[in-house]
């Protein structure tokens, strides 16, 4: 790619990055923590990142002005046109030439490891030993790629690691050649677009590449389903990819373009399998500079003048090693989030404790479960005081099948489709079935039952029917209740449950006869009462009455029979009815039909004495029974009615007595005066007082004055005494 008119070509292997700057005639190669670079046309120096210094006593004067430069732990190589020279680093004081090699055509890129060199020439790679060895057979000294009789396409890019030569072709094929076994051990040919750039981590098992469309992917030989993952949020102008060289950040890599570098974190294990997480972006301090090496967040760059500069990535801000004491709440939350994404859990724990916020703790714990880090999740749940989760995780932390653990966590997070997929993957279909059933996802549960456990179908059908009935779809519920019936002796309780639902649903959909018949056949009173109430709501009185009676719900049964005017059945069950309202309803109905004796008896059972007295006086013409009722019940209103009755037939003596009983003292006094019954009045009053009834003192004193005026001193004295006017006694 072009930066300020300079043509750059970068690739990486085993911690090495090769940079060719045409305009400056400057080359640089990175091996682990050291950078070899040209300081003049034919001189090479080495920068040691660990000591942050240039190693001045390492001096190599090359015999040619190189166009390619490569370095490993033992060798430095330079090349020009089709010729390459190889130098062994004896020590930091001595570098000697050990071999040189001529190739079939011009070398455009050169990579080396501890024993081999790989030269790239117009779509072909020659892999050969740097120094011939007697311990290796002659056939292992050199090999040309692509191999004969293969149809993998033209080689576009490659990387050489300690153990592998890995190359990508214009057909999208990724090939791994194992040097020790001297054969191709892995071929990935599912990518349909040309692979343009290739970047491996130290061991060579993980390969990031960019295809012809500019999309980035990560391939790992050990990943399963999928083995290739697309890199998210990859900038369209991405030029290269750098892997972290520090051990504790081995699954971190970055991509960069002209002005920024983006950090990614690889999750080998998660609920959804291997994943790549976007962490964040840092702007490059110098526009057009070329990143060479990334170690623990410290980025070394080669600027346009050929100087090596370094900067710290903002995505590593959670590293608390800068001595910075002040930070905002948003800074702390951001650092916690990035530490979690990059799986730096000790650092995340530090920031979680600094924040001490329940929401952030939960976010931390959830991320740990998502990444299947059970041990650290237990630690965090202990920290936040969640013993239930600690116990649950302790039980499953020894489960070796990650798919099974992932399935349970996916169910916990509510991703039931993923959970089912994982349960099936690890050979636990019944776990998936039970999960679907417990979550009331009965259609999915039914599909699983048909495939893995036919015996579960009736039980799932019954549960599905109950759900449908609850949501109001009684028609569909009937179908599933019928499917749920097994007619097996061991499932007697289950079948009764289905028949119970059927009885309810038949009634709800209007099939009254079927529903009532099933309900009558079923044992127990509850279902009969339940169905009877449904029928009552539909005003289906005959069926409702019968079911209420069978359920011994006497009050409801009586009401239903009254609605039907089935007096025979009402009279049969009335002795079992204790609710006065029901008796009153029956009494009114019988009175309305002219059945006064039955109405009177019902009014008596309902405690409506006045109505019973009214019927005795007016309809049955039985004042004796009315008087009897009044005397038994001491009904004041009833006494008034009897008094009026006797008054209407001029029986003032009887009327007087019942007026007193009804507490109509003034009326009784007036009647006694008018009809010369004052002595009877005095007797009745005296009897009432002896029975413990209170009479207003004014009424008693008024009667005493009357007797005094009549010179009836005996009665006057009694009434003054009754009125508690003892001075006048």
From TrEMBL:
InterPro entries: TPR-like_helical_dom_sf, TPR_IF140/IFT172/WDR19, WD40_repeat_dom_sf, WDR19/dyf-2, WDR19_WD40_rpt
Subcellular location: Cell projection, Cilium
Keyword Secreted included in the entry's annotation: no
Keyword Protein biosynthesis annotated: no
Domain annotation IF140/IFT172/WDR19 TPR: ranges: 487-691
Keywords of this entry: Cell projection, Cilium, Repeat, WD repeat
Entry's Gene Ontology BP terms: cilium assembly; intraciliary retrograde transport
Cellular compartments per GO CC: cilium; intraciliary transport particle A
Domain WDR19 WD40 repeat: residue ranges: 35-315
SUPFAM superfamilies in the record: TPR-like, WD40 repeat-like
Protein name in UniProt: WD repeat-containing protein 19
Species: Rotaria sordida
């Amino acid at each position: 790619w072009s930066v300020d008119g300079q043509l750059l070509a970068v690739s990486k292997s085993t911690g090495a990055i090769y940079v060719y700057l045409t305009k400056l005639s400057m080359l640089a190669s990175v091996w682990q923590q050291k950078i070899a670079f040209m300081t003049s046309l034919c001189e090479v120096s080495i920068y040691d990142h660990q000591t942050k210094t240039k190693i001045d006593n390492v001096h190599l004067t090359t015999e040619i002005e190189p166009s390619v430069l490569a370095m490993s732990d033992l060798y430095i190589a330079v090349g020009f046109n089709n010729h390459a020279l190889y130098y062994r680093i004896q020590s930091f004081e001595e570098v000697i030439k050990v071999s040189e090699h001529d190739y079939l055509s011009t070398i455009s890129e050169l990579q080396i490891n501890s024993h081999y060199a790989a030269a790239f020439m117009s779509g072909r790679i020659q892999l050969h030993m740097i120094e011939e060895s007697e311990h290796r057979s002659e056939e292992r000294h050199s090999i040309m790629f692509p191999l004969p009789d293969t149809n993998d396409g033209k080689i576009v890019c490659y990387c050489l690691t300690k153990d592998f030569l890995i190359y990508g072709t214009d057909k999208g094929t990724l090939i791994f050649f194992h040097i020790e076994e001297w054969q191709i051990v892995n071929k990935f040919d599912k990518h349909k677009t040309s692979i343009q750039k290739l970047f491996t981590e130290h061991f060579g098992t993980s390969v990031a590449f960019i295809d012809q469309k500019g999309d980035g992917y990560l391939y790992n030989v050990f990943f399963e389903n999928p083995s290739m993952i697309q890199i998210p949020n990859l900038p369209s102008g991405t030029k290269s990819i750098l892997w972290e060289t520090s051990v504790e950040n081995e699954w971190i890599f970055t991509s960069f373009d002209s002005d920024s570098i983006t950090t990614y974190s690889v999750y080998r294990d998660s609920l959804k399998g291997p994943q790549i997480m976007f962490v964040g972006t840092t702007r490059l301090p110098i526009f057009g500079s070329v990143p060479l090496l990334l170690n623990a967040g410290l980025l070394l760059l080669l600027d346009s003048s050929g100087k090596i500069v370094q900067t710290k990535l903002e995505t590593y801000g959670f590293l608390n090693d800068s001595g910075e004491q002040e930070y905002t709440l948003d800074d702390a939350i951001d650092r916690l989030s990035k530490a979690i994404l990059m799986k730096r859990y000790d650092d995340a724990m530090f920031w979680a404790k600094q924040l001490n916020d329940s929401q952030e703790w939960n976010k931390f714990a959830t991320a740990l479960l998502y990444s299947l880090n059970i041990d650290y999740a237990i630690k965090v749940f202990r920290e936040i005081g969640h013993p239930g989760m600690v116990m649950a995780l302790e039980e499953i932390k020894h489960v070796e099948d990650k798919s099974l653990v992932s399935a349970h966590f996916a169910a916990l997070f509510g991703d039931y489709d993923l959970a089912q997929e994982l349960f099936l993957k690890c050979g636990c279909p019944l776990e998936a079935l039970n999960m679907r059933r417990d979550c009331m996802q009965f259609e999915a549960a039914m599909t699983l039952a048909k495939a893995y456990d036919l015996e579960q179908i009736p039980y799932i059908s019954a549960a599905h029917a109950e759900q449908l009935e609850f949501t109001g779809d009684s028609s569909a519920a009937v179908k599933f209740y019928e499917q749920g019936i097994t007619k097996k002796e061991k499932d007697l309780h289950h079948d009764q449950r289905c028949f119970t639902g059927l009885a309810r649903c038949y009634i709800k959909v209007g099939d009254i006869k079927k529903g009532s018949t099933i309900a009558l056949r079923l044992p127990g009173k509850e279902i009969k009462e339940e169905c009877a109430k449904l029928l009552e709501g539909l005003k289906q009185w005959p069926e409702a009455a019968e079911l209420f009676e069978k359920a011994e719900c006497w009050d409801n049964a009586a009401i239903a029979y009254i609605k039907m005017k089935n007096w025979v059945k009402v009279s049969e069950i009335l002795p079992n009815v204790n609710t006065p309202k029901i008796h009153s309803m029956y009494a009114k109905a019988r009175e309305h039909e002219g059945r006064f004796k039955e109405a009177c008896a019902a009014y008596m059972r309902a405690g409506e004495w006045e109505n019973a007295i009214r019927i005795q006086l007016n309809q049955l013409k039985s004042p004796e029974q009315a008087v009897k009722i009044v005397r038994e019940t001491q009904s004041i209103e009833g006494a008034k009615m009897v008094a009026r009755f006797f008054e209407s037939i001029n029986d003032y003596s009887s009327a007087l007595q019942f007026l007193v009983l009804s507490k109509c003292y003034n009326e009784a006094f007036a009647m006694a005066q008018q009809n010369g019954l004052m002595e009877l009045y005095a007797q009745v009053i005296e009897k009432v007082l002896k029975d413990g009834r209170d009479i207003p003192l004014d009424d008693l004193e008024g009667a005493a004055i009357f007797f005094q005026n009549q010179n009836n001193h005996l009665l006057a004295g009694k009434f003054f005494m009754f009125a508690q006017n003892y001075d006048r006694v």
